[in-house]
Design a protein that fits this description.
heterodimer; A: 202 residues; mainly alpha; Rna Polymerase Sigma Factor, Chain: A; Arc Repressor Mutant, subunit A; 2 domains; disordered N terminus; B: 285 residues; alpha+beta; Immunoglobulin-like; 9-stranded antiparallel sheet
């Protein structure tokens, strides 16, 4: 199975592949196997996201489970005009992780834990999905590393820390206007660099 | 010239700058706005956000997580009531079987009255919220506002609109919270939680709750099917006034709600028995 709506290389690779959107339709019809399949495609990426936000393996796995329960309960609310399935899952997982972060007020602990604790990772069979996942990881890593550190910093504080631009300005002592400019430049650069990947998702 | 100053501001730029802020406020903007190219810039920006976590090293979850997920899907209907009972007994050991019997009748009576009264009450509340919105909008039009005042009124307006949207939603669910202390005061506090059909937006109204003791705060908890208790934050009522709380997020699988008294700043998990508790949901169609 391939890992996203229209991942790189999709189209001729696997004729039996079920599209992510079809999986969501099956979930609306209460098909549990579709949840299991969607979980297999995205769980390792989503767990990495939850772990990056929370800095704690147990919390991150709880968030992952909650996110897929939400998918089970709210699959009918997915709107393909708004986002790809992959992005919808990222937004759900991130939102839950940020909520957990805020409610437990563990920001300081998280910073330390994220630096010290290595997340437990369990082995799984390697397949087409893993290859494509790693290709996407390589591309994102490449483009993110090209961003100037100060632009990357504001993007990470906003995306993984859940901080607004005003909060980032307060936390870092950087003027708000500068924070806004850096966020804007980072997003523009990524949009220009990742046109192909975005096109695959649209 | 510094890289910080290389931008010229377009519609797409404004959207890019604000998107993460809006997501952090719990809003996912609709991508209808078309940019200069005729495409939806917001959609592509959202997809960039969705791609960001792909930079991270994937982390394989424990097999137990998937097993728990699949088990909770299979058992989501059957056993829900039994699980609920087990969970309540587990996190509040002071409530025994005799306590349940003692409170069964008042609880049932309360629920019956709530079923009768809640629809009418909902209408009254909606009218009240609509009046509040009209009043705040009037203030915004009439007053030559300082920037601080403008922000305050705008915030009030947003909150009132959020409450109204929950109350006015078709299929809103209503859950009454009841005092759990055996010795009831003459006028015990009561609360009603309204949950929108998306199970995310909620509005809680609390009456008769005294200001919290010194160095303590009230804390609201959502209890999920898995038994975790997720804090929705702390609050402190003003003397003699109604407390209203609203938010756009609620943990998935929430089946009960409680309010406890905790140290200032809140606790990571409840450290005292619930003062108010509710787990019976009625649906208003």
């Amino acid at each position: 199975m391939q890992p996203s709506d229209n991942p790189p290389g999709a189209g001729s690779g696997n004729p039996s592949r079920i599209d992510d959107k079809e999986l969501l339709s099956a979930i609306v019809d209460r098909n549990q196997e579709a949840v299991a399949e969607l979980y297999d495609r995205f769980s390792s990426m989503l767990l990495a996201l939850a772990y990056r936000v929370l800095g704690n393996s147990q919390d991150a796995e709880e968030i992952l489970q909650e996110a897929f329960l939400q998918v089970w309960n709210q699959a009918a609310r997915y709107d393909p005009k708004r986002s790809s399935v992959s992005t919808w899952l990222v937004l759900i997982t991130r939102s839950r992780a940020i909520d957990r972060l805020r409610s437990r007020q563990v920001q300081m602990r998280t910073v330390t834990a994220a630096q010290q604790e290595k997340p437990a990772s369990h082995t799984s069979p390697t397949g087409v999905g893993d290859v494509l996942l790693h290709e996407r990881q390589r591309r994102l890593g490449e483009e993110m590393s090209k961003l100037p550190p100060e632009q990357r910093q504001v993007l990470e504080l906003a995306f993984y820390g859940g901080s607004t631009q005003s909060e980032i300005a307060e936390q870092t002592g950087i003027p708000l206007g500068t924070v806004k400019t850096r966020t804007l430049l980072a997003m523009k650069k990524l949009r220009a660099a990742l046109r192909e990947e975005i096109g695959d998702l649209l | 010239m510094s890289q910080d100053h290389e931008a010229t501001v377009t519609l797409e730029d404004r959207l890019a700058g604000d998107l993460l802020d809006r997501l952090n406020e719990g809003v996912v903007p609709a991508p209808e706005i078309q940019g200069d190219t005729g495409e939806s810039p917001l959609r592509s920006l959202l997809e960039i956000v969705g791609l960001l976590p792909y930079e991270l090293d994937p982390v394989q979850p424990s097999p137990a997580t998937k097993k728990r997920l699949m088990a909770s899907l299979s058992g989501e209907v059957g056993g829900r009531v039994a699980k609920q009972e087990e969970r309540i007994a587990a996190w509040w050991p002071t409530r025994g079987a005799s306590g349940w019997r003692k409170w069964a009748l008042p609880l049932a009576a309360g629920l019956f009255l709530a079923v009768l009264g809640v629809s009418g009450w909902q209408r009254v509340e909606m009218e009240r919220q609509q009046e509040e919105i009209a009043k705040i909008t009037g203030h915004l039009r009439e007053v030559n506002l300082q920037s601080g005042e403008l922000e305050r009124y705008q915030q009030e307006l947003v909150e009132a609109q959020a409450k109204l949207s929950v109350l006015a939603a078709s299929g809103v669910e209503v859950c009454s919270l009841y005092p759990m202390e055996e010795r009831l005061a003459e006028a015990p506090p009561t609360a009603t939680l309204f949950v929108a059909p998306d199970h995310q937006h909620w509005y809680l109204r609390i009456d008769g709750l005294e200001p919290s003791p010194e160095d303590r705060a009230y804390q609201l908890w959502f209890i999920t099917e898995e038994g975790s208790q997720v804090s929705a934050g702390t609050f402190d009522p003003r003397p003699g006034s109604r407390t209203e709380l609203t938010s756009e997020t609620m943990p998935g699988g929430t089946i009960a709600v409680s309010i406890t008294v905790e140290p200032l700043g809140g606790s990571p998990e409840p450290s005292s028995p619930p003062l108010l508790y509710g787990d019976e949901v009625m649906r208003i169609l």
